[in-house]
Structure formats: structure tokens, C-alpha cells
Amino acid sequence: MQTQFDIASFGICAVDFLGLVSRYPQPGEKIPLEAFSKQGGGLAGTALTTAARLGARTAYIGKLGRDEYSRFLLEEFQEDGVDVSHVIFDDGAQPPISFIHVEKGTGERRIARYWQEFDLWPEELDRAVIQCSRIVFLEHHFVAAGVAAAKWIKEAGGIVVIDAERDVPGFEEILQLADYIIVSQHFAAQQTGSGNPEKSAHLLQEKYGGIVVVTAGENGAFCRTSEDVFYQPAFQVNVVDTTGAGDVFHGAFMVGLIENWPLPKILEFSAAVAAMKCRGLGGRTMIPSRKEVLEFLRERGISEL
After folding, report:
1. What confidence category does residue 1 fall into, taking pLDDT thresholds of 50, 70 and 90?
2. Which one of 16, 81, 193, 280 has the fewest CB atoms closer than 10 angstroms to its CB?
3. How does 159-171 read in b/e, with b if 16+ C-beta sit within 10 Å?
4. Where residue 61 sits, what CATH number does that domain have?
5. Any domain includes 286
6. How many domains does the chain have?
7. Among residues 283, 223, 277, which one has the least CA distance to residue 293?
8. Domain around 294
9. DSSP assignments along 78-128, one per residue
10. Domain assignment present for 21
């Protein structure tokens, strides 16, 4: 079957309202925002956007509504070159809305989200599109659809990459089907009982096989295969906001898979892209182009991918 897309995903896309504050306000207190931004977010949405800006052929094949927030996300996808021709439209599928306060100087944030949850079922997906993609990117939303998509793409010889923010019923089966499990240290700790990201990567790999990457923010990323262990330090930048850094890492990582780079180089590239993102407000403002990433690496004495 001829490849149509490098990466397809139907995971969550959100609309983020972000405000930069000098400090978090006390109850009842009003303080000014030093910067404000409205932009697309979400695990799948930001990963696809990152990969598209880095040159991959990406498609969002999930569900959106017909409301103003869904239209906003569609417009952003189209501007970034993410294919939306297979989006499923449903009047009840308004995307999540997040209100994010980002603390100036640390990049740490507090997030409140509003979402009237909806479902997406296997029979709503276009199986042919999934099987014409090289990678399907899954997360912890829409588990039944995720299991079906993972099986379909593996039948076609494709790759399953997953991210998860929390464990949900049925997610175990997706983990078992995954070729690459790329998760935060928080999720890894929940799954394994270990707060050590290197150890939790080892435990996850032993349990599920494949290749496991545990991202640990400023402490870098820990990768485990059946034979090797890799550690990628985080790149130092002037951090404005860490929102979406993990999602950006995932998008960059999948680009490396598409390019068939060695795993250490994929980790290095992904860490660089995630670090560059943190220099601006929100998950997408500072996602770089591939040319910008290469220049960033050259400035640090890294010239080859």
C-alpha cells in the first residue's frame, strides 16, 4: 500500500489561553499579565504540528466540532501544513479549552481545563488512511480506537508510537502493541513505582518490549532498548514556558524515525527541538524549522545528524 502520510493521529487537540505572570496571584488578588497568547495545544495536536514544521507529512484524522474553537484549530493546522482532509466533524466534539498561567523566570505553569468529553470509535476511523501512514501516534484518549489503529498499522508494516499522561482502562493493550513508548517521568513512575526515570525506563521496556523513552524535563531523557541504554541531557536555554515541551519532543522524535537516524541522534535532535520550544510562550510559538534546529546544534558543536 502506497504511503500517503508519515504520521497520522486522532488524539486530543486543545485550545490554550496562556498568560505570563511575574508570580502567581493570591486568592482575590488581581495582577497584570506580562504576555498573552491563544494557540493550539494538546498531545496529538502539538506533536503533529512539530513534525510538520520539521518537514514531515502529517495528518490529523480525529474528531472536531463545528464551533469557533474547532475552526481555530483547523486554521492553525492548515497554516502549519497538517492535513485535515480526513477530520471527523461532530457537533458535540468541542475541543478542550485550557487556561494556563506561566510563571516568569521559571517557566513553570498551572493549568485548568474545561472539556465536555466525547468519544471516537474504531468504526469512525478511516482504516485506509491509517494503513497508508508510516507512523500512527496514539495517547490515552480514545483507547478502543487506539487499539484498532495500532493493529491496523502493524498489519501494514507501520510503526506505533505512544504517549500517555495517565493510565486509563484498556490502555495496557495499547502499551503492549507499541513499538515506541515515549512518556513523562510522572507517568513512568505511576506505571512502575519507581521515581528514578532510568530505572522506570528499564522496567517499562522489560514489561512491554520495544523501545522506551522517559522524558524528565531539565534532567534529560532516558532511553532503553532490549540491548542498549542511552541518556540524552537537556539543552540549556533561557526558559520562558515549558508548556508542550514533551509533545514537541514526541513530534521531533517521530521525524527522526522517519529519517531512519540512529537512536542517539534522534534523542539529541528531539531534545534540541524541545529546548528551543521553551524559549517562547505556549507549546507552539517557538517550534523551530529543521534549518533552525541544525543551526542551534552547530552553535553547540554538533554538526551531524
Report:
1. low
2. 193
3. bbbbbbbeeeeeb
4. 3.40.1190.20
5. yes
6. 1
7. 277
8. 5-13+43-96+119-178+235-299
9. HHHT-B-TTPEE-TT-PPPEEEEEEETTT--EEEEEE-------GGGS-HH
10. no
